[in-house]
Amino acid sequence: MANWHRPFGRGNAPRGKFLADFRLSGKVRGAAAALLLAGVLAGCQSDEFVASANKAKEPVSAAIKRKMTELDMPSQSPIMIRIFKEDSTLEVWKEKRNGRYALLDTFEICKWSGGLGPKIKEGDRQAPEGFYEITPGLMNPNSNYHLAFNMGFPNAYDRSLNRTGSNLMVHGACSSRGCYAMTDAQVQDIYALARDSFAGGQRSFQVQAFPFRMTPENMAKHHDSEHMDFWRMLKTGYDHFEVTQVPPKVSVCEKKYVFDATTLVEGVPFRAAAKCPDYKVPAPLEQLVAKKQAEDNKVFEQQVARIEAREDRERRWAETQSKFASALTGGGDRPQNATLSAPVEAPQVAQPAQAPQVQAPQVQVATQEAPAAPAAASTPVETAFAPEPARNSSSGSFLKRWLPFGSSDEDNTPSPEVGQITTESTPEAKPQ
């Protein structure tokens, strides 16, 4: 087992030797545990998961076998993996007998670290985005996270931008510190599919890690992100696969990804940080991708216009609400004391000004001339106090706040006739 192991990541001791030393004695186990704890910040490390010795040799599940049969996929045909952070999904695509890839299964990612956007530096706990090639040397059958494969971060593109990080993996145990963590059952199938593809002759399989499905609608939703230029570049590779259903050939030059490119001068390599050599993309493929991107750009612009229009409406509505709130709290041209006094004087404001003036003479006549006057007087007395129950409601306050016209002196001056009514013909107690 120790002979199989290679250095796993950058600057780490062989994991097989580490596990052997781990079993020597209690003292050695304590030292190994300390080293393990110190390595946690570098990437995804051990959670002491214990599994059977044959876990790396287990066949794919019966459900996966049944799907491969239905989709006409040989058991050892090549695979490709796509990851979508926003959906928390990992897709396994597998080559059919006709040479095209089809979606074999979709797994829900148990946990992934960070947010949308690329990994920049060691310790940021950000799961990577980009195009990665997984070779047999990056497979780890003895992972303490059940089973795992290293994504090979940083790749040539990442290194051209001086991005740093190590031990970024797809693994089990549902625990992530910058990785894509699956359940043990899920990673068991994923690992077995990769292992079988290598046995069938695949030299490496591609992992395409995206922030979200690269549709024009999703691009529009995130159109104001600082990572948009990077995502547009990833979308080109996404589109190459969408139109061909074959993983694109990935190269890097001028610190950017290029897809399905062949240099015009044979033997001239692509260098990640150097100027791109003259290259070409097969014309039919280039036309298909250009057509798709033109259609997507049209939808993208429409979606962005709708989003911006909605945001503008929301902004103007927020400004209107702010102005109303300012007026209600005395922040406008209206004197503040008038607004604040409205709730106190609200019952008087709510009274129709004409009603007491018309009925008041009836009260006076009733007390001086006619015996039936008390009966007539009862009506104006009730009318005068009819608005009084509003003392415990907000109707007067509402009108005062939202219709702030007229001076405060006019609003708050009681009618003389009302005063005569309350003084000379005292009614029963007002309703409370």
UniProtKB/TrEMBL annotation:
Residues 342-384 have a biased composition (Low complexity). Keywords: Cell shape, Cell wall biogenesis/degradation, Peptidoglycan synthesis, Transferase. Residues 316-432 are annotated as: Disordered. GO terms for biological process: cell wall organization; peptidoglycan biosynthetic process; regulation of cell shape. Pathway: Cell wall biogenesis; peptidoglycan biosynthesis. GO terms for molecular function: carboxypeptidase activity; transferase activity. The active site is at H171 (proton donor/acceptor), C179 (nucleophile). Belongs to the YkuD family. This is Murein L,D-transpeptidase YafK.
